[in-house]
Structure formats: structure tokens, C-alpha cells
Design brief:
By secondary structure, this protein is mainly alpha-helical. The chain is built from 8 helices and no strands. The protein has 2 domains: 2-63, no CATH class; 81-170, Cytochrome Bc1 Complex, Chain D, domain 2 (Orthogonal Bundle), CATH 1.10.760.10. Heme C is lined by residues 84, 88-89, 91-93, 97-101, 112, 115, 119-120, 123-124, 128-131, 134-137, 144, 147-148, 151.
């Protein structure tokens, strides 16, 4: 009993083993919940706007710099006109689908060739009639110009396939 008195003098609010147990439990559990709360808070602030279909893209868009310049894979070698034609343009221009002027159909191409190479490139880049911009593809502007030259030349024109980026003035 005297022992008890002695202890009471030195140990603050924790007086029984049960209180010690509760205090120990709380001092262990409370920080864990605090940490969980912090983690939830931090990760929720990274969440994309509700309704975003592609969370990663939405996040990238939100953190992108203002006035960012898109660089398409600039290091790959540019494809030749014939290659681009076969990959993207032949779908319509080989068969004349959707009213496209057919490859090597001089009669169909002659009036178009007269408008000049630049005008044709612009049509191919921006789309014309049933043709989507870039014929629906995703090419370097120079590659499109090359495909235009390839197709026009097959129909009797004498355009040169551009070697270096002619893209700058095409914009
Ligand atoms: C979905 C079918 C389709 C695809 C694919 C397509 N074209 Fe065309 N293209 C057309 C049609 C249709 C026209 C005729 C448009 C008109 O005169 O209204 C046309 C016209 C053109 C013309 C003539 C434009 C003018 O000013 O008279 C060029 C040049 C041309 N295409 C280039 C291309 C190139 C290069 C590609 C591939 C990168 C391509 N096209 C892919 C359908 C297509």
C-alpha cells in the first residue's frame, strides 16, 4: 500500500495497468491514422479532374508548360513519298475511293497539278473534301509533301520531293 502511494506521486495520469495499455494503444494507433490521412490527402490532390477519360493524359495536360511546342519524333528518318503513299494515301488514291484522284490518272490530276505543288501540299495537310487532314495520318509535313510529289509525278508532274523540312513555311 505504501508502495502505491509512492508511485502515485511520480506517475502522471496513468495509474493502472489498464490505463497504461490504453495509452500505449492510442499512442500507436493515432499516428497511424494521421499518416493514412496525410497519404490520402496527398494522393487525392493528384487526382485528375472528374470525368477525365485518360487520367495520365489529363494530369500531363494540367502540368504542361504554357506555350509548349510539340515535337514529333524528330529523330526518325523521314519516309519517302512512295512509302507514305502506300502506308496512308493508297487506301483512297489507289482505288479512287470517295472520289479521290487515282494514282497515275493524268486526267484527274492535271487540273490539280496546275494549282501548283504548294496548293496540293496544303490540301493534303489540311484536308480537302472527303480527305481528312494528312489523309487521316500522323506524318511529318515534309513526308506529306513527299507523298504529294510522288502522286503528282506519277500523273505527269515534275515536282521534286522535298529533302529537308519544308514544314516551316507550310504552317
Ligand atoms: C479517305 C480517303 C483519302 C485518303 C486516305 C487520302 N486522300 Fe487525298 N484525296 C481524297 C479525296 C476524296 C480527294 C479529292 C478532294 C476534292 O477535290 O474534293 C483527295 C485529293 C488529294 C489531293 C489533291 C488536292 C487538291 O488540292 O486538288 C492531294 C494532293 C492528296 N489528296 C494527297 C493525299 C495524300 C498525300 C494522302 C496520304 C498522306 C492522301 N491524299 C490520303 C481522299 C483521300
Amino acid at each position: 500500500m505504501s508502495d502505491n502511494h509512492h508511485e502515485e506521486a511520480h506517475t502522471g495520469p496513468i495509474k493502472t495497468p489498464k490505463q497504461l495499455l490504453v495509452a500505449g494503444f492510442l499512442s500507436f494507433v493515432v499516428p497511424i491514422f494521421a499518416i493514412i490521412g496525410l497519404v490520402l490527402y496527398v494522393s487525392s490532390s493528384n487526382k485528375p479532374a472528374p470525368g477525365a477519360s485518360n487520367p495520365e493524359k489529363a494530369l500531363a495536360e494540367r502540368i504542361q508548360k504554357v506555350g509548349m511546342v510539340e515535337v514529333r519524333d524528330a529523330n526518325r528518318p523521314l519516309r519517302a513519298g512512295e512509302e507514305v503513299y502506300k502506308g496512308q494515301c493508297a487506301a483512297c488514291h489507289a482505288t479512287g475511293a470517295a472520289g479521290a484522284p487515282k494514282l497515275a490518272d493524268a486526267a484527274a490530276w492535271a487540273p490539280r497539278i496546275k494549282t501548283g505543288f504548294e496548293a496540293l501540299v496544303q490540301s493534303a495537310l489540311k484536308g480537302k473534301g472527303a480527305m481528312a487532314p494528312q489523309g487521316g495520318g500522323d506524318f511529318n509535313d515534309t513526308e506529306i509533301a513527299r507523298a504529294v510529289a510522288y502522286m503528282s509525278n506519277a500523273a505527269g508532274a515534275k515536282f521534286e520531293e522535298p529533302a529537308a523540312p519544308a514544314a516551316a513555311e507550310a504552317k
